[in-house]
Write a structure and sequence with these properties.
Helix content: 55-70%
Number of strands: 2
Strand content: under 5%
Distance between the termini: 36 Å
Oligomer: single chain
Number of helices: 7
Length: 201
Amino acid sequence: MTGGPSDILLAPTPPAWVAAARERWRELLVDHLGCEKKAASTAVALIFAYPEDTLLTAALSRLAREELRHFEQVQALMAQLQVPHERQRPGRYGGALRAAAATDEPRRKLDLLLTGALIEARSAERFVLLESQLPAPLGAFYGALAHSETRHFKLYLRLAEERATAAGLRFRERLEELARVEADLATRPDMQFRFHSGLPV
């Protein structure tokens, strides 16, 4: 089993993204609120898509509840720091990564689990970077969340590997293919600033 996010991410977050996060932390926090909702809804969508896989649905049910607790924590932090909620257009990252998933089964199931692992790994990597860059209470909050996101990406990765093995699918090769897409999205120049955006322009 992998150790940390860098074991599956093929490119580190650009330093310019971290610099932008220091200045634009309010925007980041608003987008983070949406990210936690999307993380919960992704887990629930997989439960609906694969109800016969009871080990997967049980694990993702627990994960969805934890993501919703994180949503509540971000919401409380926004209130504490007087950051108003704003509607934001979605960034390109999540949609583009999921668009790379296969459309036929069982390859689609594997790809959705692998994209879940990559998104959670990128979150964990950026939480660690933000811990030392943002003032209290934000830095400590992100540092604490990094541990949860690391558990989440490892869970998705384990679920993906087990199902790939059972179905006779290529696991490592497919992970590397999707990781190349993820690395490009996380580092390519990006007009939007989001939690999972690329190089700010």
